[in-house]
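Exercise 3.2. Students should predict the tertiary structure of the chain below and write it as structure tokens, then compare their answer with the key that follows.

Predict this chain's 3D structure.
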Amino acid sequence: MTTTPKSAVIAIGGNSLIRAGERGTIEEQLRNAHATARAIVRLVERGWKIVITHGNGPQVGAALLRSERAAAEVYTHPLDVCVATTQCEIGYLLQRAMEYELRQIGLFTPIMTVLTQVRVHENDPAFQNPTKPIGPFYSKLEAEEKQRRFGWNMVEDPSRGYRRVVPSPEPVEVFEEDIIRKILGLGMIVIAVGGGGIPVIEHPGYKVEGMEAVIDKDRASALLAAGLGVDRFIISTDADQVYLDFTKPTKRGIPKATVSEMAAYLKEGQFPPGSMGPKVESAIQFLQKGGKEVVITSFEHLLDAIDGKMGTHIVP
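Answer key:
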């Protein structure tokens, strides 16, 4: 596998489009997309070849809610179709923001959003143990009705009600990887693997079936980054770096660490499953598959992190 010089997959988090306390209107998302785009454009200006991946949690929740509430008047969307529609929605907003910010510095680099399917194993244990919360909160009565009518798995959040949970299987293959590689080779910026990709399984005869599941965005991004052979896998989150003892008085940042050091911290329980855990696991997976470096930081510190002044840098 050849490695593209100065290339990166940048996985941007939910805070890049919808900030805490915001309703998530298109105007708010577009404004936030511009802030994220300005940081990424600085890398493009330096000659980096970029693939952008992104989360879609709030957007897919809104899509599911629209589908449910309009069910009496129009056809409904299953979860895999909601992931597909939000990939296009977010890709459109990011493209608009990136194109504008590029032109502000005199660059006219083409950008393309690639609708991305990610294969998972039909017998993945996650399908027997759904854990990923999606969609709105329901009362106990509403939750029982959803279970009866649709066979949904529901879990209780003591402070907010009941919520649907779906499987979160491991990504196995990014179907459009070769297409993304070719587009990147043409000097274009690519937006792909939105929301972790559309989860699909493949039956004999190349028949593909969409699944009612959600793939972790960082795990799918790590898989794509390793497959493309990029120099760096950059995870943009709401923290400026990874911390040890995050909620304790002994809290301290990790400027640089090796795979073995991060694996040991992970085993100690330093990184919770619902927050930094999947990001660190994804970083380890990328490096174990031949990656050179992972950078974890917030988009505000992206350029300084690339220069080694900020963020957490994980190396083999």
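Discussion points: The first strand starts at residue 7 and ends at 12. The mean pLDDT is 94.
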